[in-house]
Amino acid sequence: MTDRSGEIPQIVIFRQNQFRPSEVFIRQQAESLTRYCPLYVGRASFGPTPPGREALFLNGGGSRVTPRALWQMLTRDPGPYLRLLGARRPALIHAHFGVDGVQILPLARRLGVPLVTTFHGFDATLKTQAFLRSPAWFNYPLFRASLARHGAFFLCASEFIRSKVLAMGFPPGRTRTHYLGVDCGAIVPRESGEETQTVLHVARLVEIKGTEILIRAFAIAARSRPGWRLEIIGDGPLRGRLEALVRDCGVKEAVDFLGVRPHEEVMMRMRRSAMVVLPSIEPKDGRREGLGMVLLEAAAIGLPVIGSRSGGIAETMCEGESGLLVPPGDPQALATTLATLMDDPTRRLAMGAGGREFVTRNFDRGRQTKRLEALYDALLQKSLPLDQSLNLF
């Protein structure tokens, strides 16, 4: 689809805090578009703009909060973003996370363009009190019903998240699960000889990710299995406490905290790992794991994965064939599952192959992007009633 001038239509990819290292999936989806040109817009930037792309920020770039950005955050006034866009008139706005959909809805209505919002996790599960305590989020519960009425379409990162979004009152006819997808064509399955005795955990170091549970489980499982290592990629407020836990558990020499790493290095480290583990827990604030993209990337490389039976994690695997599930918050159960895979290289190889097949069949990014662009087409051409556009998925 092209506009009247024959050029590829430009669409706004909106996230208040763009290019966070933990949210590379937003950029990956936008960069996979072939018939639409992404224009990244937000309040602040936490990473580099993709090469050859344009990005606009209320604070001019960087992560600082300016008076203009703070005013917009508190009031939802579309004026600052209108001035930021200048003469640009995007065909559509795609917001990532429900909080950002609420924030940019006034701009979409002022421009008269469709607003697509993708829900990823905390925006569908966090309790209302937690939103009201945050200056950046307090507008969300106040104007969520307005988003449900006026938003053009709502995409959900998993079936689990869709069930939560529907429970919040969003219209079933305009709410659909849409997996972001993995670039299976660009990911070459690893050879069995690349594997080392390494358990890999890639996550922001916050409570929900279950890193504490993994450390305790690894300490149990690795005690009688010398040579095994745990690599932790990511950073966050719990790092100091987790490093202390590693010392207390007596596994300091076997655990590496690697901090934030470029996505390319993460994928390289996956190739030489034996398994990837995401034992997310269920905090009291209601937050739940939306899906677990790191498990999909690991499976695409050919690694077995272990996740907790929480949120949308179960949707990332064919249990028993490509991955294993454990109860959330149970280090002993996780230790037993870790030990099972540590002791069985043949099973690891078979599950890795099963994971690659599962992801290719259900999560190929090329196929998912075509479906997303077909939705954009339908919204812009108004060729389908919105509830019928569900058939595009």
From TrEMBL:
A Pfam cross-reference name: Glyco_transf_4
Record keyword Cell inner membrane present: no
Keywords: Transferase
InterPro entries for this protein: Glyco_trans_1, Glyco_trans_4-like_N, Glycosyltransferase_grp1
GO MF annotations in UniProt: glycosyltransferase activity
Domain Glycosyl transferase family, chain residue ranges per copy: 193-357
Source taxon at top rank: Bacteria
Every Glycosyltransferase subfamily 4-like N-terminal domain range: 51-184
The protein's name in its UniProt record: Glycosyl transferase family 1
